Amino acid sequence: MDARQRRTRARLAKTILELAAKRPTSEMSVSEIAARAGINRSTFYQHAAAPCELLESVLAEELTELSVTHLATVSADDAPAAIARLTVATLRHIDDRADIYRVGLYDDVIGASLQPMLNRIFTATILDIFDRGAITLPHEESLSPEQRDVFIRSAANFVSAGFVGAFRVWLDTPEPRDIEGFLQLTGELLPSWWPFDTEAESVLAPAMDVAPVRD
């Protein structure tokens, strides 16, 4: 992506995030978004096929950047604290974008698409953690390759769906939302083999600087 395309992408990201905090993407038009971003419709379609796809991709970029930041060198030794730090960073992201996630996560919103997007991002992140060998499977020595593959794929989808559901409930709690309480509750809900250390000193440290959508 060249500099001009990055600037266009940044304008589109800013526009869709502003609009999505006020109403669902099903109530937006490509023409409206393009006009507010100062581009034409054909340029919009170079970045997304529809408003919902644009919003998903912008949020997915932010979430993926968080995963890269916190899990770039994750291993079995530091996985519990690293995963907890990523959870905190994700909570802060959701809190910062609370109006958007409230509009896009609820069942009564026509065309809501953020829950499947979150599931895809979280599942991919969990599969990556497995691929890095950072998680020890229960009874791994007795699993055949086929059983191991089924377990990993099932576990990734199971844990991902659980996190999305818990994030949604947390989003409904009064402000200021309790991150530490969420970590403690989640630690109780997660399976015993899942690496999650909420006691690590760095878990609740101030948010790390994460690169925004590039302009």
Give keywords.
215 residues, mainly alpha, globular, disordered C terminus
Topology record:
Elements: H1 3-20, H2 30-37, H3 41-44, H4 51-71, H5 79-96, H6 98-105, H7 114-131, H8 145-171, H9 179-189
Helix pairs in contact: 1-2, 1-4, 4-5, 4-7, 7-8
Q: What's the quick description here?
A:
The chain has helices at 3-20, 30-37, 41-44, 51-71, 79-96, 98-105, 114-131, 145-171, 179-189. It has 215 residues and is an all-alpha fold.
Q: How would you describe this structure to a colleague?
A:
This protein is mostly helical and about 220 residues long. The protein has nine helices and no strands. The protein has helices at about 5-20, 30-35, 40-45, 50-70, 80-95, 100-105, 115-130, 145-170, 180-190.
End-to-end C-alpha gap: 11 Å
Number of extended strands? 0
Low-confidence stretches: 209-215
* Portion in beta strands: under 5%
Radius of gyration: 19 Å
The backbone outline, from C-alpha atoms, is globular
Mean pLDDT: 91
Order of helices and strands: HHHHHHHHH
Number of helices: 9
